[in-house]
Amino acid sequence: MDIYKIMKNRRSTRSFSATAISDKILQRVLSAGTYAPSGANQKPYAYVMVKDPVLKEQIRTQCERVDQAHYQKSPEWFKDWMDSKHISLTKSFLTDAPCLVVIIGESNKPYWLESTWLSIAYILLAAEQESLVTLTYTPAEIDFLYDILSIPAGFKPVVILPIGYPKKP
Ligand SMILES: Cc1cc2nc3c(=O)[nH]c(=O)nc-3n(C[C@H](O)[C@H](O)[C@H](O)COP(=O)(O)O)c2cc1C
Fold it and tell me: What is the best residue among 136, 141, 159, 160 to mutate for testing ligand 1's pocket, by most ligand atoms within 8 Å of CB?
């Protein structure tokens, strides 16, 4: 598909079908993330694939906890925006999506955060090319992932990308 169409068509999705993604396709999408430029070509990130329903449930519970607390403290404009977009505090996409890709950055490397976000953008576009849908999900706090996923020291969790096929209406 034409790159401009891919960029224009991509939309965040919060409703996923349970249909699994083949390993081959997932591998292609994540490989695309590594094609992005990075500071001193360090590729300062890693992708943690979470498919285990128990881990997904644990992540969802923690995300709902921190996002609900954050919502209570948010300004009215943000609450109104969330309501207008029907963005719920119930994060069912975290257990519905067949795969969560947690992207962690190596925070002692130069330009680690910029490079990690570029890699994320490439993954979003590659997913669109594969007719997959994603959400760039950044819970209000994310450090609980260290325990749940045994993230090694030196890495910081940056984003959770649920990835899958859209739920049919
Ligand atoms: C840095 C970043 C953080 C985001 N965090 C969240 C989030 O925590 N929860 C959520 O539902 N959407 C999140 N989004 C998705 C945005 O709400 C979405 O990209 C925006 O509304 C535009 O919609 P589109 O992606 O369909 O073009 C985030 C997007 C970005 C780029």
Answer: 136
For the chain, the straight-line distance linking the first and the last C-alpha, in angstroms and rounded, comes to: 25
- Tell whether pTM > 0.90: yes
What is the tens place of the pLDDT at every residue in 101-134? Answer: 999 999 999 999 999 999 999 999 999 999 999 9
- The answer to whether 45 and 106 are in contact (CB under 8 A) is yes
3-state DSSP helix/strand/coil percent for the chain, to nearest 5?
A: 45, 20, 35
**In whole angstroms, how far apart are CA 144 and each of 60, 70, 82, 131?**
11, 15, 24, 31
**Tokens encoding 28:** 């292609």
Ligand 1 atom at minimal distance to the Cα of residue 14: 11
Set out the domains of the chain in order of their start, with CATH numbers: 3-164 (3.40.109.10)
Q: How far is the CA of 54 from the centre of ligand 1 (A)?
A: 25
**C-alpha 83 – ligand 1 centre gap (Å):** 14
Cα separations in angstroms, 166 against 19, 58, 63, 133, 161: 9, 23, 21, 6, 14
- Residue 38 Cα to ligand 1 midpoint, Å, equals 23
